[in-house]
Amino acid sequence: MKSTKYSDKVLEHFRNPRNVGSLEGDNVAIGRVGNPVCGDLMEIYIRVKDDIITDIKFKTFGCGSAIATSSMITEIALGKTLDEALEITRQNVADELHGLPPIKMHCSSLAADALHDAIKNYREGIKLEPVVDVPTKSSCELPEPKEIIGLDQFLNKGVYRDYSNLDKFRDKRVIVVENGEPSIELAIKLTEITGRVIFMTPLKMILASKELQLKLKISDVKVLHEAELLEILGDTTLEKVKVHDLNEDTEYELFVDAVILP
Amino acid sequence: MKTIYLDYQASKPVDPEVFEAMKPFLLETFANASSLHQDGDIATDALEASRSKIAQFINAQDPKEIIFTSGATESNNLAIIGYALRNKKKGKHIIISEVEHISIHNIAKYLEKNGFEVSKVPVDFYGRIRFDKIQEKIRDETILISIQYANNEIGTIQPIAEIGKLTREKGIIFHCDAVAAEELIPIDVVRDNIDLLTLSSNDIYGPRGLGVLYVRTGVLLTPIIIGGGQERGLRSGTEDVASIVGLTKAAEIIQERREADTKRLTELRDYLIQEVLKRIPKSHLNGHPKLRLSSNAHFRFDYIEGESLLLSLKDEGISITTGSACSSKTLEPSHTLISTGLLHEEAHGSLEVTLGRYTTRTDIDKLIEVLPKIVERLRKLSPLAD
Q1: Does residue A57 form part of some domain?
Q2: Most exposed residue of A248, B66, B149, B294, measured as fewest CB within 10 angstroms of its CB?
Q3: What is the pTM of this model?
């Protein structure tokens, strides 16, 4: 079966998703699952009154079935008690949608997990912030930099601490590792000479003046949050780096030409 | 509803003239080219005339250097596995690039399991092979380098002449997968010092299920399909004369119209790229701005996922493809996009548009009209887009 061979019901929910949006105010909880790196991120918002889900909204970044399952589960859960809603399984969602391709069953798990996460957060009084984040206190301090494997071997062979002469970065894919406001300014400046600048920070947020934050936001710098360099890889010069995703505690490789360290 | 087809890299229609040229060999002249009777001779003549024509298509010096196979995948297998197994005494190291077609990657994996070592050359942000890195990776034991002529996903054209010069100087065999390039770029295996070259019939509007491997005289291979010894023993199995005649016709047509096609497609492609980047905020072009196939436009859109884009375009009657994981068998995003240095979430939001002989300005206008609305709708659903 093709991975995009969907039932009419799935397509209908994809085309006309129910309950899109977010909720604010009292008695609201948010459930969040997935990771954009894997191609899906789901948020479900519930408003609860007398133990009943009286309003429900979702936002989803993902494939057709991720959007359809989010939409479907909001329809199923609305009006149910929290205990009833906790009983909703991925199979219920898939059945209501008249089935999903086997490779897409994880999407319906995500939807069920996001709903259950929201209920858990409601009961435990946990307030998640929307994904474009308002910082929590603990995320405001730069952690001690960890040792990077291969740093000595590749210093000045793709990894630089000295960037007085920016010309060597012309048309290169450059990672600038977070080191306060000067590093943000450096990243923005580099976009004048190359089309690919990644600003890598271990934090969830940008530590900078409002003005500089805005400058960064409208710039062509790609910001990589909650990421740390683990390892420099290559033969004799840098080819790629291994990155630690601190949020998911996973590792992945990223192809680059130059890394600028504090 | 009549669809707008913008996925020519995946499959092309057979040209009507090609179909006409094939017909007599399906219905009347059906004999086996290996048979010694008169009917067999007619088939043999057609087969050998085709071989000469295909040799001329890529400037091969001798028709014997042309081997017909069942497709580009088989040609890649015969070239790389066939050469590696035959020449392993010379060395057991081969080099490919990070952005090769999936068949080359999996062939390399197979050789690794069988005692060979494989190095992969990285590419730059635009998908161009890093030439300095090839030199870095060559060892005394390197026997073969396999680099594509142009990338099948993002359309970036590779520095083939430079690679050919280097490998010839070093005495290393150069295999080039030219499938993505063969329609619009004139190929010259002599000028570019190519030793082994893969072609596909369908990629020049010929019938499916037919490929070519060019094997330069003096390059020795072990066959990977054993049988009655057809194609100089390198590819056994009765030749599909009708398809081969079709491919030959397709090659003739391409040579006549290549220049005009390139001009027309370049204009359409540039118009599409310009309008998409202008009309859609946070949209980007993947691949090289200039050194790219005239038929290829490859985009990515921040905050959205490619499969939902594809489904929405499907509702508009537009057939198009994406580099997103969610539309693949493995749920991994395109290795080509990752190799250019894109993050997974960026690769997920990509859209591959490949134009062809029947693409019109009206088709492109329709895409330009609906795409901004679709992207906007999906961004409204996305938690990443606030």
Answers
A1: yes
A2: A248
A3: 0.86
